[in-house]
Amino acid sequence: MRILLTGAGGQLGQALRGVLADEEIIALGHCELDITDAPSVAQQVKRYRPELLFNVAAYNLVDDAEENVEVAFRVNAFGVLNVARAAQAVGAALVHFSTDYVFDGRQRRPYCETDTPNPLSVYGMAKLAGEGMVQRYAEKHFVIRTCGLYGRASKSRKENFVERMLRAAREGTPLRVVHDQVLTPTSARELAERVAPLVRSGRYGLYHMTNEGQCSWYEFAREVLRLAGLNPPLTPVSSVDYGARAQRPTYSVLENRAYRAAGLKDFRPWQEALADYLRERGEQKSSK
């Protein structure tokens, strides 16, 4: 199968390249393909004529998006429109990734695919608009919402939450992490492994795909540090006291209802996936 992958340098792009290594992959980073350039997107997709197109390119600076509204929508909505139209033009199936931040966090049960989105931030609004572009303009599509993603990325990319906690701990920086936002940390590697059989099934639609379980960001940080054998000062703080520019949902756990209905292999608990990630990085010290 010929696969075109945008955003190839990011953590999910890197994970997909590893999982799909046996396929014919055309991996394009931002330097090779800017999805906001409609003629370039159309030209590249027509040139390679993929059967499957993974769009992993995105503007993921949640707080910066509050001020850079035009940039967030140009990439996460209209850039996605360019990719959707190009995929449709060559008959390719499009796999697009979205976020738990399309929800407002007001309910206290995991969100399923039929729950009504209500994003609180510019980032969430732009990502929701991107979902709509895919659903409207790409007949064969998978829209995948995920949550708390972490994984290996190219050296030029920003750190994920796990790496940021490890670096700060080793530098002796006191850590302040919010305790009142609940999520599910999700391994990019495991997400890639679970997406591959789903897209091969041809069961198009909207899916929630995360590891199992839930925790606060503070509990996530505490488990990262425990597994790495580090014990820096770690203080739980409220979202208000932390003072991030963008409002996040206080509860954004996703239920993998449609994915399970497709009869595919379940995700592991988030703690197991995290332990594997740290072990592969040579970071796990605790066996408890």
Question: How would you characterize the overall build of this protein?
Answer:
The protein is an alpha/beta fold. The protein has a domain at 2-154 and 187-211 and 255-267: 3-Layer(aba) Sandwich (Rossmann fold). It has 10 helices and 12 strands. A 6-stranded parallel sheet has the order 2-1-3-4-5-10. A two-stranded parallel ribbon has the order 6-9. β4, α4 (122-137) and β5 (141-146) form a beta-alpha-beta unit. The longest helix is centred in the first third of the chain and has 22 residues, at 69-90. The model has no long low-confidence stretch (mean pLDDT 95).
State the gist of this model.
This protein is of the alpha/beta class and 288 residues long. Helices cover 40% and strands 16% of the residues.
Secondary structure blueprint with pairings:
Elements lengths: L1 E5 L4 H9 L4 E5 L9 H11 L3 E4 L13 H22 L2 E7 L22 H16 L3 E6 L2 E2 L10 H10 L4 E4 L3 E2 L2 E2 H14 L3 E4 L6 E2 H12 L5 E4 L1 H4 L14 H5 L8 H11 L8
Helix pairs in contact: 1-6, 2-3, 3-4, 5-7, 7-10
